Amino acid sequence: MSLEEAARQLKMAGHDAQVAFDCVGLGDIERAQEHAVTLRAAADAAEVALSRALTDMTPEEAQAEGERAVTALEEPV
Question: Which pTM does this prediction carry?
Answer without folding.
Answer: 0.83
